[in-house]
Amino acid sequence: MTIQNRQGGELQMSPSTYSRLIHFLQEDLSISAASLAVALRHREQDPGPLPMILWQYGLITLEQLERIYDWLETA
């Protein structure tokens, strides 16, 4: 999985980091499995960074999006 950071560059995400991201989204941000499923379905049709897709579809707030990118910077 490739995600873009705030500066427009790209970060490569290992499978273990991706798993930890999903755990963070569900446990720390209380994002439902249904919301993640919606985002992942949309991502198949229109590839892009998962955090941005969650935000674009109104599944997370701008504050949550910032928290996700903060988490990704330290992951």
UniProtKB/TrEMBL annotation:
InterPro entries: DUF2949 (IPR021336). It comes from the Bacteria. This is DUF2949 domain-containing protein.
